[in-house]
Backbone:
């Protein structure tokens, strides 16, 4: 089974590209929480009220006078999508799992640019959740784009804003800047040298939170972690981003020196063994679950970044992280599949992508 | 590291070839225990006495009138060999581990044909242990050759023989024919379908013994088993061999039908997954111990025999079974190696042999 071109083309920019410092930082994400002045928060709104907001926002971004520096956004009304398509958006990290659960409700939407760098959830926890997702360490670039989208929307919509508190949000933890800056990092070196807990614990002391791959409450699979700010109030957006950026610089240093340490001396061959075994299994298995696949892809990606493996493209991890998820697999296959069937199909997809032939 | 041609050439015939029914039967072995009339058993002999026997036997096989139907045999005096070379003979299944432990003793030897099909241990438990080892199921052929060697030796030496008991041997379990007929079989199908214990238990009821790869008291690694007769007294050689042969025919049937069963239906992809993962690890690992290697080689060989894998030679199992053992590895490397070093070198040797390039 080949991955159809249409599927490849439908991948978000962050999946198709690696960015600056891509050996450690998979993605940078800026999210702004915003609410409209004249409406209750979405959880207290009727379907009718929510639909009114969706229409209003759709109209705003389609207005001719809407800021043309931003790529054109189109609104996707989630109730019009089959469940599998909503799930694919979750797997691409464009919307939250909560936002995807819109069956029998209506009045929820997402605005997307063509390259899916910008995704604005409408009527999730807040009326607007502006997200910019870029490959690699590009917090400033993401912030710049998010800020542009925010300003453009503000010319058309009236935000709920308080002189003392800043932007008002449904959950008090988001009040103020409404900003969450986060990076998804790949830390196999720190994990293998048993330094991960030490490093991650230190982050909480500087106001940062660490979570697994798919957001709050999810397990860290494949040595992939999301690091983000916890404080949104009392600091400027630039400060929040600067703080995360400087912490990331340090973590990158530590991760890179762990990797170098692992390649030196007697542990070098152990690391190479682990990397090549991962390659061997990924390129030959006929059944694989997503947990094992991500663990092995993590090892393989480490091997690519450390130039142990040179014939596989580094972005395989980004791509596969998304493509091997349940909904995406069924989308590629063009049919519903049981868990067992997905494990077989996942192995096919990975093998095809990993093998050099 | 390439395997030198000299090493490849030094491999016994059973290692270099697969034989009839080679999908299940790796080797057939006939062993005859014989003692000389005028001497106590080796354990009760002085070094001088043992050396006298070695000289006598050496002289016998070098006599011009010695039966020319048998390939020429040359005597190797074990005390003249370094320990690693004696160990290599054990790993090639030419002599027993006991026979290899000849340091500071002397008076032990082995007679070998050039292709190492015939190996006669001199002064192991008995004065003579004539062994014929052939690839595949060739019990009759091995018996024919063993019988020829036996007759040829008997023209030159006087055997300890009793009209009522037959050939006299050190251990009473060998008295009579002095014959042990054995086959080394590869039974992954029966193992995977959980039928192994049932089948192996049934063997003891028909007077057969089952042991692991390296003889008595060794563990069964890689689904490899040695099956041999226990009774040597009161039955003719032909009867013993016929009995083992007919049991083998049944086991082959059962093993083959287990394999077919495994490939059918839902288990087929599981079996293929197991086989291809074994291939993937063997062709990529950088560190591997002999236990894991044999297990994976067993899976790979099954895949070759079942035509799941078609680009690897079936005799890889025979070859690697021997080449990846400690002494052989050091022989190939031309140096002493620690256990860790051997695990790395073993992975190199296997990778080179398994990879298609």
Residues:
């Amino acid at each position: 089974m080949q991955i159809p071109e249409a599927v490849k083309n439908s991948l978000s920019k962050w999946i198709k590209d690696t960015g600056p410092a891509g050996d450690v930082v998979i993605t940078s994400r800026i999210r702004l929480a915003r609410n409209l002045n004249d409406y209750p928060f979405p959880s207290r709104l009727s379907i009718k009220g929510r639909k009114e907001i969706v229409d209003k926002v759709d109209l705003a971004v389609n207005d001719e006078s809407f800021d043309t520096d931003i790529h054109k956004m189109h609104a996707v009304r989630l109730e019009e999508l089959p469940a599998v398509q909503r799930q694919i958006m979750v797997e691409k990290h464009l919307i939250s799992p909560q936002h995807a659960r819109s069956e029998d409700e209506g009045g929820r939407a997402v605005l997307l640019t063509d390259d899916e760098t910008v995704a604005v959830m409408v009527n999730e926890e807040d009326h607007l959740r502006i997200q910019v997702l870029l490959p690699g360490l590009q917090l400033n670039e993401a912030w710049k784009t998010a800020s542009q989208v925010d300003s453009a929307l503000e010319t058309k919509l009236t935000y709920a804003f308080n002189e003392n508190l800043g932007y008002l949000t449904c959950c008090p933890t988001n009040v103020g800047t409404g900003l969450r800056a986060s990076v998804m990092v790949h830390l196999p070196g720190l994990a293998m040298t048993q330094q991960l807990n030490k490093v991650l614990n230190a982050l909480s002391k500087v106001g940062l939170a660490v979570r697994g791959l798919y957001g709050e409450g999810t397990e860290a699979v494949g040595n992939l972690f999301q690091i983000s700010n916890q404080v949104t109030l009392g600091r400027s957006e630039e400060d929040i981003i600067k703080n995360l950026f400087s912490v990331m610089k340090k973590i990158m240093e530590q991760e890179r020196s762990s990797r170098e340490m692992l390649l030196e001396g007697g542990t070098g061959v152990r690391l190479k063994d682990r990397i090549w075994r991962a390659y061997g299994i990924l390129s030959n298995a006929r059944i694989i679950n997503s947990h094992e696949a991500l663990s092995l892809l993590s090892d393989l990606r480490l091997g690519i970044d450390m130039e142990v493996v040179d014939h596989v493209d580094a972005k395989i991890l980004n791509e596969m992280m998304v493509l091997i998820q349940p909904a995406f697999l069924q989308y590629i296959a063009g049919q519903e599949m049981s868990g067992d069937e997905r494990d077989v199909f996942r192995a096919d997809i990975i093998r095809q992508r990993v093998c050099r032939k």
Q: What stands out?
A: The mean pLDDT of chain A is 89. Strands of chain A lie at 25-34, 73-77, 109-113, 118-122, 128-135, 161-162, 166-167, 179-186, 208-211, 224-229. DSSP finds 14 helices and ten strands in chain A. Residues 5-258 of chain A form a domain with the Creatine Kinase; Chain A, domain 2 fold (CATH 3.30.590.10).
